[in-house]
Amino acid sequence: MQRSAIRSLALALLWLSAACSPEPAGRADAEVTDAPLSAGADPDGQPSSDAARDAAPPPDAGPPPRPYPAPAAWPPNRGPGGPRRSFAEAELGVNCAFLDGGEGDTTNHHNLVVMYDGFLLMPWSPEFGVTGGLTLWDISDPCAPTVQGYGFTDQMRESHAIGFSTVGGGRWAVTSHQRQLVNGGVLFWDLSDTRAPTVASALELPGFFYPDAYARVVLSVFWQAPFVYAATADNGVYIIDASDPRAPQLVGQSIFEPLLRAGQVHAVGNLLITTAAEGTRAALLDISDPAAPRPIPGGDFVFRTSAGEPKEIYFSNIGNGYVYGVRKQGGGGVMVYDIRDPARPTFVTEVTSNGNGGYAFVKDQFVFTGESDFAAQYDLSDLAAPAEVRRFHLTGDLDTATPIGNVVVLSVDDKAEPDRGSAIAPWALEPDTTPPRVTWAYPSDGATGLARTSRFGLVFNEMVDPGSAWVGSVRLYRADLPPEQGRVDGEVSAQENVVNFWPRAPLEPNTRYVLEVPAGGVVDFNGNATVEAFTATLVTGP
Question: What is the C-alpha to C-alpha distance for residues 84 and 336, in angstroms, rounded to an integer?
Fold first, then answer.
């Protein structure tokens, strides 16, 4: 069971301004809108006489056309993108460079990294806060990285996720926040100049309490623009309207009953995926009303081994329609569940190790995990026979291994050697040339009866460049009109391997829409563009 609290009018206000403009032309009756009448036809579809046509007023041409920009016409990055270097076989798995966050990075507590604006971006801070920031590097030669941007704050804490948005025409990020040890929540950054990121605002969340690092703190964030979902352990999931990142507003809170210590959270269209931190449980929620998550019947499950034994995970991640839970009980490795039907999550496979699980990231058929004493790369191309590929090493509590092109960035969050909280090691011989592709969408192709407040999520085979997910490369339009006339305005946002489209106004009732990712728009960190176009047809309800 679950309940929602602290509901506000924020969601209604969000759509009200857009809803006050003229509604898109077309039918909104009980039948699904599918195709316009052909010229010269009466309402029953029968040809009309020439005289009747001559006497009738000109047919309604529909909304004025608003052509989409070319998929690849998004603003260029400042940096060169992902690694461009080739490696010899003997170099694979061997650390070739180390990363330190800069002057303020005195604790060497690091977690994930991503690419942004063509640079490697690392949010760094210890779990107790006090010091933190964002540092950006040029890693075109990953064994000789150079610092290209730096921002410092005393309001940050350890961040296991970072979300991005261009809401309001800006460039923003969100991380975890902590102030004076006992207060905290989420922290918004202004990335308009990646040479000098600055804090835009902080929102303190009720019930936050440290020094317990797992009970009532923010463990992860996910930005499905304009809303941010924050997993806050025993406090559940907070929902924040970040339409204005300089003045974010708390919209709601979802508490799990019985308790689920919310660690990882992902929003994929109308689906919210929440998994426990150091627990066995996961919950799949319907967020077709984005401010009021509702449990999906059958979507609450326990991570189990192939023998059916419950096992705790430390954290999780998603990819290709699966949840990957990193084991921390009775050894390490990964347990994989298929969630493509959220009402029937099913065990798929597992791979075990002698480690103690941390965090996971997916690239193509590979899963990279931090396992405390080492990091591991697993090949899941054959789900019936997953296999360990290699291990990586870095002094300290090695909980994170993030694949970036043909290298992996290893990060420790405790007991690091000075200025060596992260290291770069190659895992593939040649620079990445595999294009990104959509491997899962939710709602799925052919879905009907969708809420008019629906959002649409796309999961790719690898992390994608956030800047390349924009109005030209992720499109939603009515199926009964040409795309340039049926175009739906919305917010497009990307975080790791997930891209979301949020319509700015409620959709028309009983209407068929097309979600499209054209070829040549969305790119990965190395600039490889989508080759396979993706489309899904989706129908709203009353």
Answer: 32
